[in-house]
Design goal:
Blueprint lengths: L8 H14 L3 H8 L40 H7 E2 L4 E8 L6 E6 L5 E5 L17 E7 L9 E9 L6 E2 L4 E4 L7 E5 L9 E6 L16 E2 L5 E2 L5 E6 L2 E6 L9 E3 L5 E4 L6 E3 L39 E2 L4 E2 L6 E5 L13 E5 L4 E10 L2 E6 L9 E3 L6 E6 L5 E5 L16 H9 L9 E7 L16 H4 L8 H14 L5 H10 L3 H13 L5 H8 L4 H16 L6 H7 L5 H14 L4 H10 L4 H11 L17 H22 L7 E3 L2 E2 L8 H4 L2 H10 L1 E2 L11 E2 L7 H14 L9 H10 L7 E2 H7 L2 E2 L6 E4 L3 E2 L17 E6 L5 E19 L1 E3 L18 E3 L5 E6 L5 E8 L4 E19 L11 E11 L1
Parallel strand pairs: 30-32
Antiparallel strand pairs: 1-24, 2-27, 3-4, 4-5, 5-6, 7-8, 8-9, 9-10, 11-12, 13-14, 15-16, 16-17, 18-19, 20-21, 21-22, 22-23, 22-24, 25-26, 26-27, 28-29, 30-31, 33-43, 34-37, 35-36, 36-43, 37-42, 37-43, 38-39, 40-41, 40-42
Helix pairs in contact: 6-8, 7-8, 8-10, 9-10, 10-12, 12-13, 12-14, 13-14, 15-18, 17-19, 18-19
């Protein structure tokens, strides 16, 4: 009974035609995807060894041999979609041109960039998931027939890229998994392929399996760039990239915004939106009953497979569909103009495990939002299907005014950590041969009867700046966003009068909002205009004025203080809530009494909730792998002391926000410290500058202030405090500095006469040895996660290296240098992992989970050095490891070989804790 799935002739012809654009062998592609062969005997799936048949995961499970799930052609899949009356769905781009699409994004000319995760779950063991074979492709509909037929591999050979953000003409931002840097890729010769790669920002990544890393870098209406997971936002300025901390968004895959610029973040494992009540920059607030009753119940069509990671408890009988949301991906607040008007402002997201696209109606009452599934009463969803391979992972309002759905069309939609041998899900994967369905993917367009898509082709990059302004009035939010981004990036202030008039007088409310934020992005929003907007008759404009004027207040324009206080008693509940958030954000003087004033004359639930939680902040919720690292009490105290020193002394020259104080003619009084690579480099740079001062040009740039004075008369604690604040509180993300580090640097530089010159200082600072120049070996080697690379060199990446076995005395990790060097310092981070065998209770909310972690740092170890790798000399100090960041001084010991060796065993520990390290850095001097 041999069965084959093959592409039709039309698809094969299309593959050959597209090969010249995308750069793959279409015949080989067809061959790879057409060999879903089943032998004469279907595979028998049995209960894994040791599994309890009475366990809820296994009770009543059907493990009889089944016919394998077969992919359908796009035309066949389209027939199985179930949509409300009047809606239609059609493919705009499919395999073999693209493979395993995970997200799309449009640039200012309407070209569609596709994030192709070509290594996602190619096997149930996630083999080769981190191979550099993924790509970001770019597609155009040149004949304007609605199909994207012309494409190129814009950036190829990527390691599981995290996002794609168009960032100007022929330019995108992206980063790879297990990496720390975001890069800007540019096509400089117009051939559709990026040929220039530049560092955009660093300290942006994190480790973990590919589902738990940051994703979806997103340009917000407020001109800041946000991402999931990361509890900060970044922004490009003339003096570099700056960064501000935000609340923890608890999201995994999806960010969007509404017409008022509020960001909506999409959860992953929770199966529901993760943050949406208030703008994320104001922090986290605990809001009860955010989801309407029954919201967590999906109503997918019968798919029969019952392939749910949670086991039989998650299966609706007898149709085999999901009975409780367990995964979600991709989101969009629909802001287009070619679907029914009642869809505007509705929130859409995908639940790929349930094979549904959900439509949500946000209902705001007394300032608090509750989410309702529009089709819950009908026990249905906006879009569902009986095709078990439909995997909706992204939703997008398109330039043509319709809604696009990114469908990975894939067999397995759960990362390898949860599909290991012996699990219920692995049994289902093998039963239906889901691991054989790989390398496919479709992009769909949702339309409505009687509403033709907009066939106007965007060409924003070629338009004059003044002509772009009119697009801020466009009925499709995509056009407004794209025009605003272009206007801000061009920095052409000739349109400021035009924008000011629009912001103050336009009858189009959304145009006014975009004009306000375009002014803010051009650094052209002035206090008199902001004050007029703060007194506008429309409460939506007053809210935008509060948010946009915060940058003025933070830059020391205190003339807005009276306006902020007046807004705290605004008759409109939403304005009053925003005023409270703004007061907290800008640290309005006498904050507690001002918040109490706002609460005193309002009975609105939102005012009460916000006020109480500003006055008494709630304890941080359990964020699992998605939260921001919590500072210790000592670190918090250090930052607070450092902030006081900085604001009293350093801000005069370096600016209140660390961006440098303007000195006229485009010059600064002193260097910007916010987002500074120097401030985030080895601590000795900053310590020595504070101890001894600096004069002269820095990388060819001079400053009006002349020189940085020596402050060596200050104590080690004083210097450690202020530098820890600078390295953590001014758009920087670097390690804290201890008084002991300052003391060592003070002793080492005691002979320094006068201030440093930049070139002199740069040569004296410890430098990082590049991993590619080092040869590393280890006594034991494993990846820190399923599907990772197995190499000791992984210790230098976010992926990390592990012994894989429980810590045992004598285990070692060794680094060979190209030549002997004076070793200054070694740093590494040790991860935590979820305790083996733990799983959440069915129906338990993510916030309520208490996740048991095991800590994989080395408990005790020593260092030895050698000239030849044979004769070793131990450095006479045993070191204790710590959870998280480890920094060990090597004090200039000369060596060609460095060996780290465990001096303690954990073989009696029931958790079998291995030794793991990542982000390893070795410094020489």
């Amino acid at each position: 009974m041999k069965q084959f799935f093959t592409f039709g002739l039309t698809t094969a012809v299309a593959a050959v035609a597209l090969s010249s654009f995308i750069g793959f062998d279409p015949i080989q592609q067809i061959r790879l995807q057409s060999t879903f062969v089943v032998g004469d005997t279907l595979p028998k799936v049995s209960l894994p060894e040791g599994a309890d048949p009475n366990d809820p995961d296994w009770k009543g499970v059907d493990l009889a041999p089944k016919e394998p799930v077969q992919p359908l052609t796009p035309a066949e899949e389209a027939k199985l979609f179930l949509l409300p009356p009047g809606y239609k769905i059609q493919p705009v781009l499919t395999e073999p041109a693209i493979q395993q699409p995970a997200a799309i994004s449009f640039d200012g000319n309407g070209r569609m960039y596709v994030l192709e995760l070509r290594t996602y779950m190619l096997t149930a063991d996630s083999k080769d998931e981190l191979k550099p074979t993924s790509r970001i492709s770019r597609w155009e509909d040149k004949n304007n027939d609605g199909i994207y037929e012309t494409g190129t591999a814009f950036v190829d050979n990527l390691i599981f890229p995290r996002f794609v953000l168009p960032y100007g003409k022929d330019c995108i931002l992206t980063m790879e998994s297990d990496a720390d840097n975001v890069y800007k890729y540019t096509d400089t010769n117009g051939d559709g392929k990026a040929d220039k790669k530049e560092l955009f920002t660093n300290k942006y990544g994190r480790s973990g399996n590919v589902e738990h890393q940051q994703a979806f870098m997103y340009w917000g209406m407020d001109n800041w760039l946000y991402s999931t997971v990361n509890a900060f936002r970044i922004r490009e300025t003339p003096n570099g990239i700056i960064r501000e901390k935000t609340g923890a968004n608890r999201a995994q895959w999806g960010i969007t915004h509404d017409d008022d610029g509020k960001l909506w973040f999409q959860g992953g494992a929770t199966g529901v939106p993760s943050h949406f009540q208030f703008p994320i920059q104001y922090g986290n607030f605990d809001v009860p009953n955010e989801l309407a009753q029954g919201f967590d119940v999906p109503w997918g069509a019968p798919v029969k497979l019952a392939d749910m990671q949670g086991g039989m408890d998650e299966v609706r009988q007898p149709d085999g569909s999901l009975n409780h949301v367990t995964g979600s991906a991709g989101n969009d607040v629909y802001r287009g103009d070619r679907l029914p008007a009642e869809l505007k402002g509705q929130y859409f997201y995908g639940e790929p495990v349930a094979r549904i696209v959900r439509q949500i109606n946000p209902v705001v009452t007394e300032g608090l939002t509750t989410l309702h599934n529009v089709y819950q009463d009908q026990k249905s969803e906006f879009l569902r299907t009986t095709d078990p391979l439909f995997r909706p992972v992204d939703m997008t309002t398109a330039p043509d005014g319709t809604l696009y759905i990114t469908d990975m069309y894939h067999g397995i939609i759960q990362e390898g950590q949860w599909t290991q041998k012996g699990t219920y899900l692995r049994a289902k994967i093998e039963q239906y041969q889901l691991d054989k369905v790989v390398g496919l993917g479709r992009i769909w367009r949702i339309t409505y009867d009687g509403k033709e898509r907009d066939k106007t082709r965007p060409n924003l990059y070629a338009e004059k700046t003044a002509d772009l302004v009119k697009h801020l009035e466009h009925p499709n939010g995509w056009w407004r966003d794209a025009a605003q981004q272009q206007l801000v990036q061009r920095k052409d202030r000739s349109i400021v009068p035009q924008l000011t008039t629009m912001a103050l007088t336009s009858k189009n409310i959304v145009a006014r909002i975009h004009a306000i934020w375009t002014l803010e992005g051009l650094d052209a929003l002035k206090a008199p205009v902001a004050q007029k907007l703060l007194n506008d008759t429309n409460p939506r404009i007053r809210i935008q004025a509060l948010r946009a004027s915060e940058s003025l207040y933070k830059a020391s324009d205190k003339t807005l203080e009276a306006d902020y206080k007046r807004a705290l008693t605004d008759a409109n509940t939403d304005v009053r809530i925003q005023a409270m958030l703004t007061a907290k954000f800008v640290k309005l003087p006498d904050l507690d009494n001002n918040i109490k004033t706002a609460m005193a004359s309002s009975k609105a639930a939102g005012v009460k909730l916000i006020g109480e939680q500003i006055l008494t902040p709630p304890k941080q919720r359990n964020m699992g792998p998605f939260g921001a690292p919590e500072l210790s009490a000592n670190q918090k105290a250090q930052v607070e002391r450092g902030a006081l020193i900085y604001n009293e002394l350093c801000s005069q020259c370096h600016g209140n926000n660390g961006m440098g104080t303007p000195a006229g003619n485009g010059r600064l009084l002193a260097p910007a410290l916010a987002g500074s690579q120097h401030m985030q480099a080895h601590p000795d740079y900053a310590i020595r500058v504070v101890l001894h001062g600096m004069e002269g040009a820095i990388e060819g740039k001079t400053y009006a202030g002349g020189m940085m004075a020596s402050m060596k008369e200050q104590s080690d604690d004083w210097i450690a405090d202020v530098l820890s604040y600078v390295r953590n509180g001014l758009s920087n993300d670097a390690s804290f500095i201890s008084p002991q580090q300052v003391a060592r640097a003070r002793q080492k530089t005691a002979d320094q006469k006068g201030p440093y010159q930049y070139a002199q200082l740069s040569k004296s600072i410890p430098y990082e040895l590049q991993p590619q120049t080092l040869h590393v070996t280890a006594s034991h080697t494993a990846s820190t996660r399923i599907g990772g690379n197995v190499s000791p060199a992984s210790a230098f990446t976010y992926e990390g290296w592990s012994t894989g076995a429980v810590q045992e005395k004598g285990m070692w990790y060794q680094i060979e240098l190209p030549k002997e060097a004076s070793l200054a310092e070694i740093r590494f981070t040790s991860p935590q992992s979820i305790k083996k065998g733990w799983k959440p209770k069915p129906g338990q909310s993510f916030a309520a989970m208490v996740i048991p972690f095991i800590h994989q740092y080395p408990r005790a170890f020593t260092f030895s050095v050698s000239d030849d790798g044979k004769n070793w000399k131990e450095i006479p100090t045993e070191t204790k490891g710590v959870q998280g960041d480890n920094v060990i001084a090597l004090n200039g010991v000369k060596a060609k070989f460095l060996r780290m060796q465990l001096s303690e065993s954990l073989t009696n520990d029931p958790d079998e804790i291995p030794w793991s390290m990542g982000q390893l850095k070795l410094f020489a001097q």
